Amino acid sequence: REAMNAPPRAYMLDGLLAPRELSVWWGAPKCGKSFLLLRLAYGLALGVGMWGRAAARPVRVLYLAAEGEGGLGNRLRALHEDMGDPGDGFALIAQRMELGPPSTDLAAVIAAAKKHRAELLVVDTLARTFGPGNEDTAQDMGGFVAAMDQIREDAGVHVAVIHHGAKDTEAKTPRGSGAILGAADLVVKVAKGCAKVDHAKDDADGAELPFELRTVELGTRANGSPITTCLAIEAGSGPRRTVAKVALSPAAQQ
């Protein structure tokens, strides 16, 4: 009776991201997964959802940028100009770190998450935070999963891990041991143009999350060349493309 009367499952992003859980977002190299997760996390810090899914309220975000640190400033500038300022609701740590065994930086990350009062923590990427272990062995991957569980439990956050897939875009699982997939509450495969929910705890599998990467100019360099980056947006939400009008025959019109 107590279990049946327990409060319903809460969401940070309706039907997709729930508090204190583990999600894995994986895809082939250069498919846009880091751009997508940065946009998703930044939006949630503002209380803005995606794909018609509402954010219940602004969520405090800590983003661990252990990969692609060099271009992160431009990406954040583009998001700031496009969406606004989340204030202190969005924070990041931009450096290499070791979270998998021996978990040299795990305690520091948990302390940072607590200090920030984070509710969502993004790990970008598994490969750059895994440590000296072997991704292909269940034992070492299990150690990484245990570290993610410790972050979730000690800091009270949802942990979203960005993970690489094989170069083969048709691959059905990410590279390395599948132990992390078995532990995840949400698994999303990211491909160019669309992410798809492979597995969701208590929610429907197979949901499609279309997006596109829009090139944004942020200014010019000293030599006159443009400073550009990419911004992940919902597919169809950007400026409409101009389509040339073509005269149709009566049959084609019909």
- Measured as a percent range, the helix fraction is 25-40%
Number of helices: 7
Based on DSSP secondary structure assignment, what is the total number of beta strands?
9
Structural shape = globular
- Based on CA atoms alone, the radius of gyration comes out at 20 Å
Low-pLDDT residue spans: 238-245
Roughly what fraction of the amino acids lie in strands? Answer: 15-25%
Structural class, judged by helices and strands?
Answer: alpha/beta
Major beta sheet summary: 9 strands, mixed
What's the average pLDDT?
91
Could you give the distance between the termini?
61 Å
Give the strand order, joined by hyphens, for the main sheet. 3-2-4-5-1-6-7-8-9
Write down the secondary-structure element order: EHEHEHEHHEHEEEEH
Description:
With 254 residues, the protein is of the alpha/beta class. It is 27% helix and 24% strand. It has 7 helices and 9 strands. It has helices at residues 33-46, 72-83, 106-116, 126-129, 138-155, 179-183, 250-253, and strands spanning 22-27, 61-65, 90-93, 120-124, 158-164, 186-191, 194-200, 208-220, 226-234. It has a 9-stranded mixed beta sheet with strand order 3-2-4-5-1-6-7-8-9. A hairpin with a 2-residue loop joins strand 6 (186-191) and strand 7 (194-200). Helix 1 packs across helix 2 and helix 3 (106-116) packs parallel to helix 5. The longest helix is centred in the middle third of the chain and has 18 residues, at 138-155. It is globular, with a radius of gyration of 20 Å. The protein starts with 21 loop residues before the first strand and ends with a helix. Mean pLDDT is 91; it is low at 238-245.
